[in-house]
Amino acid sequence: MPKAAKGRSGKPEKKRAKKDPNAPKRGLSAYMFFANEQRENVREENPGVSFGQVGKILGERWKALSEKQRAPYEAKAAADKKRYEDEKQAYNAQADGDDDESS
DNA sequence: CCTGTGATTGTTTTC
DNA sequence: GAAAACAATCACAGG
Fold first, then answer.
1. Interface residues, strand C, Cβ cutoff 7 Å
2. Residues ≥6 apart with Cβ < 8 Å to A20
3. Per the database entry, where does the chain bind DNA (predicted)?
């Protein structure tokens, strides 16, 4: 059951701005790792494709892979997520109490 | 307790 | 250098 038709319901607002004091950016996404590898392949199989094209093709290819293929990327994403946990932790520690920051 | 929301992440190409 | 399509995410917070 699709919790809610969330997603990009049409809100092409520019990039986001930070809102947290130390903004513990989250971890990367599987697509990021996948793109890192496919970007070369996609551009190679699609010579001459413009920005919009390659971008789309990349996405199509992403899902074109099998879950197993995404596995390595998901794994990286999961690993990266852990990385974020670290930031979040530091953010948490500092956000909460703090030993000395107000000089 | 459960939910969804928002914020974020990195790539590519083009000028 | 910046901007948009492309996709995943998923930790955080609130009623």
1. A 12, 14-15, 26-27, 29-32, 35, 51-52, 55-56, 58-60, 62-63, 74, 77-78, 81, 84-85, 88, 92
2. A91, A95
3. 24-92
The nucleotides of chain C lying under 7 Å from a protein CB are 3-12
Mean pLDDT, all residues of chain A? 79
C-alpha separations of A99 from A3, A21, A89 in Å: 41, 16, 15
Residue A14 confidence (pLDDT) = 60
A74-102 pLDDT, tens digit per residue, is 998 998 888 888 888 888 777 555 555 54
pLDDT tens by residue, A9-56: 555 656 777 777 777 888 899 999 999 888 888 888 888 899 889 988
Instruction: State the CB neighbour count (10 A cutoff) for residue A21.
Output: 9
